[in-house]
Amino acid sequence: MLIRLLRRALFPASLLTALAVVAMASCSLWVRIEAAGHVYDEESVPAAPVAIVLGAEVYPGGTPSPFLAARLDIARRLLQAGKVRAILVSGDHSRWDYDEPGAMQVYLVARGVPAQQVVLDYAGFDTYDSCARAKRIFGVSKAIVVTQSYHIDRAVALCRNQGIKATGVGDDSVRIYRDPWAHSMFRERGAIVKAAADALSHRDPVYLGRHEPGIDEALALS
């Protein structure tokens, strides 16, 4: 009797676990298929008008974390090499005391990037929102997405899902920060499921707003 009760109790949990594993595997496969053939190293990535740098942690005082700084450095080198003509920095500025895009702009300009070639998206609250807003608000149709390598397939998949002809460059230099890297890779498993759900639902970004001419103006000046 006790064994039967235990089996009945454990069956729903086992079923939910199995469904979660299947969902994660299916979403991971979708991301890999969407990104296949579109992820490059920095030297071989084809040119595009815009680099989209996805936001990451900014420390108090406005210093980009090593993960974010590595992304910005790639975008800066792509601009210097003539592979892009403008940089769209997209991140979280939901609080007045936390400004990812502003910190990204300051970092780039301090390292020689002309201010007029850096365009800020203050409502890139997650990867989906950054990609959707790049297309729908800033009019980006072709871009190189820049982030870490554990994130790049998802970022490229979501941007392509939004109608951007996106390629991607992933950074591995911050792998030396072992604990944050491992934590980010673990979080990516759940993020992949959310990405597939967002792509399937075609939801609007958290904040949409009107068309922003910043990219058009930056490209016209370059």
Automatic annotation (TrEMBL):
Domain DUF218 as annotated: residue spans: 50-166
PROSITE patterns for the chain: PROKAR_LIPOPROTEIN (PS51257)
Organism superkingdom: Bacteria
Q: By its UniProt entry, which InterPro entries does this protein fall under?
A: Cell_Envelope_Assoc, DUF218
For this entry, the protein name equals Vancomycin high temperature exclusion protein
Source organism (scientific name): Paractinoplanes rhizophilus
